[in-house]
Amino acid sequence: MTYDLWYWDGIPGRGEFVRLALEAGGIPYRERARDPGADESALIDDMQSARKHPPFAPPYLVAGKMTLGQTANILLFLGEKHGLAPESLEGRLWVNQLQLTIADMVAEAHDTHHPISASDYYEDQKEEAARRAKVFREARIPKFLGYFERLLDGPQAWLAGGVKWTYVDLSLYHLVDGLLFAFPKRMATVAAHYPKVLALHERVTALPELQAYFSSGRRLPFGEGIFRQYRELDAA
């Protein structure tokens, strides 16, 4: 089966968590908002079309007659269907729990530059963004990364503890990648406290399964979207 992935074109965003799993798993898919002649209205029209289980927002995955929304839900499905998660129910629920924790940090990272309203421009909430970003840098980055560092304690190389990566390792990679882009000063300061997290980031960077994607034009650079680089929001 070839899946249809729908997400806004032009930004990595939450869709990148799904892309990484599809690409690393060698799973056929089409990025429908990037079809020739497609534009933002194509995604909106599709999202509003009649469906048994309509998505609230992208990303969403069309798998035959099923429509799956929410990043963690999509990855839960792909993980079980394509062997990107542990075989046991306990293991699959564990990596889903970790994915939801990543989603919490992603939401907080986004809110550093849109703390009042996602509908308003950053320039209209810069004072509030500065306050929110300071708390995120000083308290929330250490709290989240410290948690993942503890999970990697010992000889295990991957979050689920096996000898092979699962989709949540790819997601932690993308989260760290986004933080390195958006908060380079802060991450340079705290990196020494999370060597295992940064080592996992490097292992995913080197995965043979992802090299073709990383070198292709399909991978979008950071800029707009969740992870944005505002120099005034970053500090050591």
From TrEMBL:
Q: Which residues form the GST C-terminal domain?
A: 88-233
> Any one Gene Ontology biological process term?
glutathione metabolic process
Source taxon at top rank: Bacteria
Signal sequence residues? none
Which InterPro entries does its entry note? Glutathione-S-Trfase_C-like, Glutathione-S-Trfase_C_sf, Glutathione_S-Trfase_N, GST_C, GST_superfamily, Thioredoxin-like_sf
Q: Which GO terms describe its molecular function?
A: glutathione transferase activity
Instruction: Enumerate the spans annotated as GST N-terminal domain.
Output: 1-86
Q: Which organism is it from?
A: Achromobacter animicus
Please identify the protein, giving its name as recorded: Glutathione S-transferase
One Pfam family here: GST_C_3
